[in-house]
Design goal:
This protein has 482 residues and is mainly α. The protein starts with 19 loop residues before the first helix and ends in a 7-residue tail after the last helix. The N terminus is likely disordered.
Length: 482
């Protein structure tokens, strides 16, 4: 059903464009595996439970697999570019859907800006380390923004082809390092002490678990491509499970190999002694393989961040498109490019927002990693975990309201309830420890997380306005287009 009549061809994405492999590449690119391993997990290991991190990754993987069961079950009945927004609209109603849509748009946009901060810092650092050139981080970030804006404006095929090459290269270099560590025996021999209760309970497991969940952010984007997928009823669930298992397995194996390489007993002290924990992976590469692999990892770290930027740009643009087409935002956003059939206006809006925020942080003299990345990426993670909780409730509500679609109580009711409860606990933990995650003062932390209820309130008000002005369109929010 088309909820937004418009000029023929201007409210439709390119149907039948993406297969399972391409959607998987988009999802694992959003997870930015190399950037997470090089930039995220060293800090997570240091602040969390140290060598016990791989066991927490398995726990996070288990919760997200349970979530994915209900998530993909609902995807069979709601094929829409709005992802969380569409699911929550169909399950909990238009007002909740409007709140979710605005929260998702805020989350993906600020996450994009946070990654631009990390990208700028890493590229500027490489210029300094390799060429001795002092380049402002924001200049590197803006250069990447131009590239991403051009690719996002065009059709999705080009983005998918580029991402596939980037992702394969990332996985190969890290697996090569993993193999070299394990073949050499690591620091004190290959063992599985990282999975023992002593290591798992050491340090601060709550903080470690939050970092593990943050590492998976991006896997949920599979449903955003439902309208562009070949046979979405089969493609979206398959791509989601493949992506979650691939990312979770890769992270668990690689973090365990990193701990074996450094030594489980001394890894936290080693990280604490480093002026920049992001260089931890470089040190392991130098030690176990050689500088040639380290230089490759440096380059692919940049490529990984660029791939993540492109994937999250596509996600944000599709949220603008979906909410514009449904009438929550300007209908102009709900039109696609006449040639590329891309959500080009959503893409331009996302690029504009990112440019304004980046320039604002640059003028304020913000640190690109400790402030731009740490603040915004953790705020986005908090928002997306809350959206997953609401999605679990929406799945349960939808199947209770549509018993004709209820083919399994375990998959449609029980597992969504269990995963929703677990994710809600994770959300509360993130809220309590938000100052630790961001490294910000209590006042700034409160100001940051207050964006979550504010964004949800604005979205709910937009939905209420639509209900009063166009009740028929309100009733169809999140409905699958014709």
């Amino acid at each position: 059903m088309n909820v937004s009549p418009s000029t023929p061809g201007t409210a439709q994405l390119r149907h039948g464009t993406l297969g399972v492999a391409m959607i998987v590449f988009f999802v694992i690119s959003a997870a930015s595996p190399l950037s997470v391993l090089a930039g995220g997990f060293p800090i997570g290991i240091m602040l969390g439970n140290g060598a016990g991190t791989p066991a927490l990754l398995l726990a996070a993987l288990g919760v997200l697999l349970c979530f994915a069961v209900g998530y993909t079950r609902l995807a069979r009945h709601v094929a829409h570019a709005g992802g969380f927004y569409a699911f929550i609209s169909r399950g909990l109603g238009g007002v909740w859907g409007g709140a979710a849509g605005m929260l998702a748009m805020v989350a993906y946009n600020i996450l994009q800006v946070g990654i631009y901060g990390m990208f700028g810092a890493v590229v500027a650092g490489n210029f300094d380390a390799l060429l001795g050139l002092q380049v402002p981080w924001w200049a590197c970030s803006l250069a990447a923004l131009v590239v991403v804006a051009c690719l996002g404006y065009r059709n999705i095929d080009l983005s998918a082809r580029l991402l596939s090459v980037m992702v394969v290269a990332e996985y190969l270099v890290i697996l090569l390092l993993d193999a070299a560590i394990l073949v050499s025996g690591g620091a004190h021999g290959v063992d599985f002490s990282a999975f023992t209760p002593t290591q798992v309970s050491s340090g601060n497991p709550a903080i470690g678990l939050l970092f593990c969940f943050a590492a998976f952010i991006g896997f949920e984007a599979s449903t955003l491509y439902a309208e562009e997928a070949k046979n979405p009823q089969r493609t979206i669930p398959l791509a989601t499970f493949i992506a979650v298992l691939l990312v979770g397995g890769f992270y668990t194996f690689s973090v365990w190999a990193m701990i074996v390489g450094s030594g489980a007993d001394g890894i936290v002290e080693r990280l604490q002694a480093m002026p920049d924990p992001i260089t931890f992976l470089y040190g392991l590469s130098d030690q176990y393989v050689g500088t040639w692999l380290t230089q490759s990892i440096r380059l692919l770290f940049v490529v990984s961040l660029l791939a993540g930027l492109l994937a999250f740009h596509n996600a944000a643009a599709r949220y603008f498109f979906a909410t514009g087409r449904d009438g929550l935002l300007s209908p102009r956003l709900g039109r696609t490019h006449p040639r590329h059939q891309s959500p080009h206006l959503g893409s331009l809006l996302q690029s504009t927002i990112a440019a304004v925020l980046l320039l604002g942080f640059a003028l304020a003299g913000a640190d690109p990693v400790l402030q731009v990345f740490a603040w915004l990426s953790n705020l986005a993670t908090l928002s997306l975990i809350l959206l997953m909780v609401l999605t679990c409730l929406a799945v349960i509500s939808y199947f209770r309201s549509h018993p004709e679609h209820l083919d399994s109580r375990l998959c449609c009711l029980v597992l969504p309830a269990l995963s929703g409860l677990a994710l809600f606990v994770i959300f509360l933990m993130a809220l309590v420890h938000f100052d630790v995650l961001t490294g910000a003062s209590t006042l700034i932390s409160v100001a940051l997380w207050s964006v979550v209820p504010l964004a949800a309130l604005i979205g709910a008000l937009l939905a209420l306005r639509l209900r009063s002005t166009a009740p028929q369109r309100f009733d169809l929010l999140g409905s699958s287009p014709a």
